[in-house]
Amino acid sequence: MELKVFKFDGSETAKSVSLIDEMFAIEPNDHAMWLDVKQLLANRRQGTHCTKEKSTLSGSTRKIKKQKGTGGARAGSIKNPLFRGGARIFGPQPRLYGFKLNKKVKQLARYSALSYKAKSQDLIVVEDFTFDQPKTKNYSDFLKNFNLVDKKTLLIVSESNKNVYLSSRNLKGSNVVSVSDVNTYDIMNASKLIFLESSLEKLQNTQVSE
Fold this sequence. Notes:
With 210 residues, this protein is of the alpha/beta class. Helix content is 34%, strand content 15%. The radius of gyration is 27 Å and the shape is elongated.
């Protein structure tokens, strides 16, 4: 599959790039994508929720009334979960939500997401660019050149670019990641996927070397 390369101002160049079929033209595996997204979101959960059980709640352990003769139910502690201000039964405790996912499954999920974007023609390749200083207007002008101001976009750069990242941070729906950090969730969450020439080459080279 061939894609035209665009300039920063949105005009076409005489160049084009080839997308390798092993990454951009496979039969998408929806289940692998679901697992990958599920693991990513699970790993982001803090899992620090905690409620106090009977053993950790402060309060007297004195038996609050005699066992028999009151006409009511037995009660042994003021911390009884049935009482107001008592402990909580089976409340949430700190835990890790993350789980293991094989590297090949994650790779399949990522390639499936890229294939979906290629099939729907939501890929754009742009010549490499950078900014001298962080400025939101610079990145906003870049999106205007491609009519992407009101759309979710994911710009993939070959390596971390602080000025480009900071310029995009204030724009809603705009995301900038390096090739090494791109994931299935970010790809599918974006309406348009924007590659810099060098980042696409680097991404495809990693597939060839595997």
